[in-house]
Amino acid sequence: MNNEVRKLSNDQLLEVLALSRDATAIYSSDNIVIEMANDAMIDFWGKDRSIIGKPLEEAVPELKGQPFINMLRNVITTGVTDSGDALPAETLINGKLQVCYYSYEYRAIKDELGKPYCILHTAADVTERVLGQKALEVALIQKEALEREQVLNEELQEANFELENLNQELNLSQESLSQLNTELESRVQKRTLELVNSEARVRHMLADAPVAIAVFSGKDLFIESANKKILEVWGKTDAIVGKKLVDAVPEFAEQDFVRILNEVYASGKSYYGNETKALIQKNGKTEEVYSNFIYQPLKDQFGSITSIMLSANVVTEQVNARKKVERAEEMLQLALEAGNIGTWKINTITNEVVLSPLLKQIYGINVDENPDYEGIWNLVTEDQREKVFDKIQHAINSLGHCDISHTLKRANDGQIIWIRSFGKMIKDENGILNTLSGVVIDITQQKEDEQRKNDFISMVSHELKTPITSMSAYTQLLQAKSRNESDAFTATTLDKIQKQIRKMSTMINSFLNVSRLESGKIHLIKSDFDLEELLKDVVDESRLTDSVYNINFDCCEAKIIHADRDKIGAVISNLMSNAIKYSEKGKMINVKSEVVGNLAHVTVEDEGIGIEEQHLDKLFDRYYRINNNQTKTISGFGIGLYLSAEIVRRHHGEIWAESSYGGGSKFHFTIPLAQ
User: Fold this and answer.
1) CA distance 465 to 467
2) Which residues are in the PAC domain (predicted)?
3) Which pairs count as long-range contacts for 251-258, CB under 8 Å and 24+ apart, including other chains?
4) 33 - beta bridge partners?
5) Are 512 and 464 in contact (CB under 8 A)?
6) Contact assessment for residue 501 and residue 473, using Cβ atoms and an 8 Å cutoff
7) DSSP result, 598-664
8) Distance of alpha carbon 172 from the chain centroid
9) Rounded-to-integer distance, Cα 590 and Cα 666, Å
10) In whole angstroms, what is the distance from residue 542 CA to residue 669 CA?
C-alpha cells in the first residue's frame, strides 16, 4: 500500500481558499508582500488580482496611516499571533473610502526552526453586526430620551403647579412670573428640538444601513418602519409602512416568520435565525433568500413589549456558494466510487491511518475495522516492501508526491492483487505539511492483460526469429552469387532486402527484450570495456548503412566502463537510428562523449524535425509515439527509447532529451565509469 497522501496542487489549494467564506491572504517578508489572496479578501480591499506579489502598503495605499502594516510587521518579526474583533478600518468600497469593521487573525507561519517566514491573514466582515448593535443602541438611546422627556414634562407640570401656588401664596409680581415662564418655555423648546434632531439622525442612519432593519408594532405586527435594505429584500416600496406584515408581504403567512414573531411578542425573548430560508415574491417569481437575523423585543419604561425590531444580514450568495461546493464534493465522491477509486491519508508524525470504505473493500478489510499503519503495511507483499517504503519516504522527506504500483495480499481471502497508489504531501488544518494523502486503483486486470500481451508478443517474436534467420541466410547466399555474376541490379535489391531483414530482426529483439524486462528475465552480462571504441563501431556501421547522412564523431581518450557491452551498444544504435529516421537526407548528426565527474556522458544530436515540449517527459514511456503529419509515415512501435531507458537505469545511469519543435533534438545518457 502507498502510505502517502496526495497533496493538493497549487490550483486546487487556491480553489479551496477562493471558496472560503472568510477572507484569506498570505504575506511574506518584512515588506508584507502579498503572496496570495482569495476573492473575499480582494473584495474587502476593493482591488483586483493584479495586486498579488506587491507589498500590501503599495497594493492597498489607503491602509497608510492605519495600524495594520505595523501590526503585520510585528507578527513577522516576533512570530506572535495577533487577533481581534470588530476592528475599524478604512477601505475602498465602490470607489469611496468607508469605515468597515472586521474580525481578524494575523497568524505567523514558522519553519522547522521556529522562525516566521510568512503570515496567514484571515478576516471576516462584521460591519453589519456592529452597525446592527449600534442601531439597537441608538434605538435604546432614543427610547431613553423619550422617557427623559416624559419625566421632564412631568417635572415641568409640577413646577407650574408649584409656581401657581407660589404666586397665590406670595403674590409675586406678574412680571417675575412671566419671566420665569419664558425661561421654562425656552428650555422645553430647546430640549424638544434636540430630541427631534436626534430622532431624525437615527432614522437617517437606519434608513441607509447595509443591514436589513424593520420594526413591527403591536400584536397585529404593523410595519412601523422599514429601511431601504429590507424593502429591497422584500421587493417592496415604502408604501407598505403602516400596514400589517401579512398584508404587506402575504407570502409570509404560509411561512414560520409570523408564528415566531408572535412567540417573541408573547415571551419577550429574542429569536436568532441562522441561514434561514425565506420565499419572496419578486416580479411574479419566487426567490429563495437566506439570512442571519434577530427578532429583538422592544419594551417601554414599564417593561411591556410594544414592538419587535428585525435586524437581518442577507447571506444568499454565501449559502449558494457553500451548496455549490457541497455539490462538487458529492460529484467528486460519485466519480471516485464510479471509478472504483479508494482514498487514504496518513499522519506522518503519528502514523494514524484513515481509509475510505471503498479502499477497505479493495484491501479486503471489513468496513467496520480501522487497521493501524502496521496492519496496512503487512498487506504489502514482502518482495515489494522495500520499493514501496523507499518511495514513500522520498515523498515525505521531499514534501513531494509518489506514484507506486505494487502487489498486495488481500486481508480477507489472501488473494494477490496489483494496485497503483498516488500520494502527495498536504497541509493539515493548522497549515503544517504532515499528512500524506492519495488514491488507490486496483490494476490487477490491467496487469493481467499486459502479461497476456507480453506472453503473446514473446511467443510471436520467438516464432518469427527462425524464418527471419533463414531469410537472412538465403539473402546472403544470393548476394554472394549476384556479386560473382556481376548482376548489379540484383545485388542492390538484395542489399535493400538485407537491410529490411535487419530492421525486422531488431524489432523482434526489441519486443523480446520488453517481455524479458517486464518478467524480470533480462540479465546484464557486465565487463570492463572502452566506451569510445563501442561508439566508433556503432558510428562506422551507421555510416556504412546510411551513407546519405553526415555523421560526425571525433574519437577521444578511452573511457572504461563496467557494463553490458551489447546492451549499451543497442542504446547507442537506437539513438543513432532515431536521429537518422527523424532527419532529412544530407543533414548533420553529431555524436560526442565526455567525462563529467565519475560519469561517461554520451550525446547524439540531430538537425531533424524536433519534439514539442509536451512530449519530452513521455518519450521514454513504453509504446509512446508522437503522432502528427510529419511522423505518421515513419515506422516504429515506441519501444526503442523505453528499452534504452531501462537499460541505462539498470546500469545506474540517466537518460534524457532536449529539443524544440523544428530545431532538432539532443539525446543524452550517462554511465558510471569503471572503479
Assistant:
1) 6
2) 402-455
3) 251/279, 251/280, 251/281, 251/286, 252/278, 255/279, 258/221
4) 28, 55
5) no
6) no
7) TEEEEEEEE-SS---GGGGGGTTSTT----STTTTTS---S-HHHHHHHHHHHTT-EEEEEE-TTS-
8) 89
9) 9
10) 19
Under a CB-based contact definition with an 8 Å cutoff, are residues 355 and 365 in contact? yes
Interatomic CA distance for residues 240 and 242, integer angstroms:
6
Hunting for cell 496526495 — which residue is that? 6
Which three-class secondary structure state does DSSP give residue 412?
A: coil
In 208-285, alpha helices (H)? 228-234, 245-248, 257-267
Residue with cell 513504453: 622
User: Cell for 621?
Assistant: 514511456
Q: How many CB atoms lie within 10 A of CB 279?
A: 12
Sequence-ordered alpha helix ranges (H) in 19-126: 39-45, 56-59, 68-78
Helix, strand, coil fractions of the chain, as percent rounded to 5: 45, 25, 25
DSSP 50: G
Dist CA 131 CA 133 (whole Å): 5
Q: Which domains does the chain have, with CATH numbers?
A: 21-125 (3.30.450.20), 131-318 (3.30.450.20), 339-442 (3.30.450.20), 447-519 (1.10.287), 527-672 (3.30.565.10)
Instruction: Report the phi/psi class of residue 227: left, alpha or beta, with left for phi > 0 and alpha for psi in -120 to 50.
Output: beta
C-alpha cell at 648: 541505462
Q: What is the pLDDT of residues 307-356, one digit of tens each?
A: 999 999 988 888 888 888 888 777 777 766 666 788 888 888 888 888 88
The residue with cell 502579498 is 34
DSSP letter assigned to residue 93: E
Cell numbers representing residue 299 in the block? 419594551
Report which residue type is found at 403. D
Q: Work out whether strand 550-553 and strand 588-596 pair parallel, antiparallel, or are unpaired.
A: parallel
Q: Are 668 and 603 in contact (CB under 8 A)?
A: yes
Summarize pLDDT for 391-428 with one digit per residue, the tens: 888 888 888 888 888 888 888 888 898 888 888 888 87
pLDDT tens across 219-257, in order? 889 998 899 888 888 988 889 899 999 898 998 888 999
- Please say whether the beta carbons of 60 and 78 come within 8 A: no
Helices (H) and strands (E) in the chain, counts: 18, 22
Rounded distance between C-alpha atoms, residue 243 and residue 564, angstroms:
97
Buried b (16+ CB within 10 A) or exposed e, 366-396: eeeeebeeeebbebbeeebeeebeebbeebb
Integer Cα distance of 146 and 139 in angstroms = 11
Half-sphere exposure of 410 (CA within 13 A, CB side): 18
The one-letter code for the residue type at 643 is L
| Three cell numbers written together for 145 | 430620551
What's the longest Cα–Cα distance across the chain?
165
